[in-house]
């Protein structure tokens, strides 16, 4: 699949929400939470169903975001349901800093691609045989880091593992610890979180670890059977900007600590 050129007005629109260099004393990477939802706040037609919501214009924007992040994180539910590639197909910028789809077209896509991070405590997803592995083998993507509860007896070739411990209260991996480890152990300075529902719901409630929120709103309804994303309690946003495309709109914002 080849992408259309990036619509030029997306660059200034996204500028203030893209990763900035964090000070070396910062314990975690810059984190962007980004996903596509329908008008009825669904991210897929049903559990485990890969669903295209973004049209080409906003799909290119997602690849532009991938270009600007060192890591791309999804939960095991998404890895199993979508068999995603998680590489970057947007070709980059020229030496003058101009967005230019032609300049780097001959370079391997793996250069522009973020490192996939799969949160998979009980190791249900396999890299072997996945689209990610195909892309890696073709020089079009990077191999993943898999976040697990314990190291597998038979580690998969090319996979790096991060062993995490569960938070006593929630039974989940602790986000600040996990993100801190991605920075300190794997030198990832920026991470884009794409989903799925479980991960998005958790992170919408975490202004302490999310720096930017970029949501594509597709002009479609996915209906009552769709997988809805909604935080457990109300969330207020600040620094809100909207971009309008042919079919989709994009909202960029920051999460705030304030109550409603
Ligand atoms: N429209 C969009 O932008 C996107 C849509 N999706 C859709 O989302 C759906 C998948 O969503 P979900 O089933 O909710 O899966 P998910 O991708 O959120 O993964 C949930 C699983 O990840 C693991 N996990 C996540 N956070 C964890 C933590 N803090 N500690 C320990 N384990 C953790 C657990 O195993 C959990 O069962 C699919 O239908 C997919 O197509 C996924 C990504 C983006
Ligand atoms: N931005 C966006 N729009 C949609 O309509 C989507 N369904 C998604 N899904 C995310 O993209 C992953 C697929 O990536 P590849 O194209 O295979 O690289 C999918 O797993 C979700 O994370 N995103």
Topology:
Blueprint: H1 10-15, E1 30-37, E2 42-44, H2 56-67, E3 71-75, H3 76-82, H4 109-112, E4 115-119, H5 131-137, E5 145-148, E6 160-163, H6 175-186, E7 190-195, H7 197-204, E8 212-217, E9 227-228, E10 237-244, E11 249-255
The protein binds 1,4-dihydronicotinamide adenine dinucleotide and the ligand Nc1nc(O)c(N)c(N[C@@H]2O[C@H](COP(=O)(O)O)[C@@H](O)[C@H]2O)n1.
Q: What does this molecule look like?
A:
The chain is an alpha/beta fold. The protein has a single domain (10-255), classed as Dihydrofolate Reductase, subunit A. The chain has seven helices and eleven strands. A nine-stranded mixed sheet has the order 6-5-4-3-7-1-8-11-10, sandwiched between helices. A hairpin with a 4-residue loop joins strand 10 (237-244) and strand 11 (249-255). The radius of gyration is 18 Å and the shape is globular. The relative contact order is 0.23. 1,4-dihydronicotinamide adenine dinucleotide binds at residues 35-36, 43-44, 47-51, 53, 74-78, 81-82, 119, 121, 172-173, 194-199, 227.
